[in-house]
Amino acid sequence: MPDTVNGPLVTRDTVSARLRALGVEPGEILLAHSSLSSLGWVCGGAVAVVQGLLDALGPHGTLVVPAQSGDLSDPAVWRSPPVPEQWWETIRATMPRYDPRTTPTRGVGVIPETVRTWPGALRSAHPHTSFAALGPHAAEIVAGHAPDCRLGERSPLARLEKLGARVLLLGAGYASCTAFHLAEYRIPAPLVEVGRPGPDGWERVTEVSISSDRFDELGHDFERDRPVLRGTVGAADARLFPLADAVAYAERWLSVHRPREDEFPHPPV
Q1: Which residue in 25, 32, 44, 60 has a CA-CA distance of 20 to 30 Å to 205?
Q2: Residue 63: which H helix or E strand, with range?
Q3: Nearest CA among 151, 156, 144, 130 for reference residue 71
Q4: Pairing state between β 62-66 and 29-34
């Protein structure tokens, strides 16, 4: 055990009060990307943070989080860590299929996993890039997430855009901003073939290729040019902005600064 604890001390009330000060409004729809460790010493951990988020939104607000499970994927492309090639076929044959009720999140932090398992939470159907939601608009947001559309027009991101949702980055950087991916579906982008466990065994699905490359630069320019509310919650930097604004800006920025036409001649992998 460490001899000291890293503060500041953060409580449920700290979270809700600082989010209200940032500009979070009761009754709104919020897509939250978060880092628990960035906040300081949180009394109650992720549960207290989720409670604080729900307190700030009130009973008529809706909280949405990414609930990704990218480990339900082809072992041939695993890099962190890789697995021996002689295991690949066994892994493909025995990997459990996606179940929104039981498949854990991976790589998005403990706060989204806490939301996923919260009483009343609903989760979308995509095996790799689902979203979990709590609140009056949850069912509308997660419904109809197409199995071949990770983060595009038939995903919760497009519904969040139409509903006027805002994005909260709570100790998370712009590299985590899934809203930018919706822009990738609206500009020329290569396709990839993705392997995963399906209802009838191992399946391969063609998807739009997505990448977070240069999202930090994109976020820097977005924050420079567009209204972004900034504050702190505990030790964490917090940012709040309209999702639709981020998507529109990213669509223009990516077309200029990160065109991907050069990837088209290559076959899907």
Answers
A1: 32
A2: strand 62-66
A3: 130
A4: parallel
Output the six-digit token pair for 172. Answer: 């998370």
Average pLDDT over residues 65-70: 94
Q: Are 216 and 175 in contact (CB under 8 A)?
A: yes
Length of the chain in terms of residues written: 269
For every residue of 158-185, DSSP letters joined together read HHHHHTT-EEEEES--GGG-THHHHHHT
Cβ within 8 Å of residue 40, ≥6 positions away: 6, 7, 8, 9, 10, 234, 235, 236
pTM exceeds 0.70, yes or no:
yes
Is the backbone of residue 168 left (phi > 0), alpha (psi -120 to 50) or beta?
beta
Lowest mean pLDDT among 4-13, 153-162, 203-212, 229-238: 4-13
Do the beta carbons of residue 52 and residue 13 sit within 8 Å? yes
- Bridge partners (DSSP) of residue 25 are none
The answer to whether the bond into 81 is cis (omega within 30° of 0) is yes
CB-based contacts of 94, cutoff 8 Å, min separation 6: none
pLDDT tens, residue by residue, 76-111: 999 888 999 999 999 999 999 999 999 999 989 999
d(CA 24, CA 53): 9
In sequence order, what are the residues at sequence separation of 6 or more whose Cβ sits closer than 8 angstroms to the Cβ of residue 68? 105, 106, 107, 108, 128, 129, 130
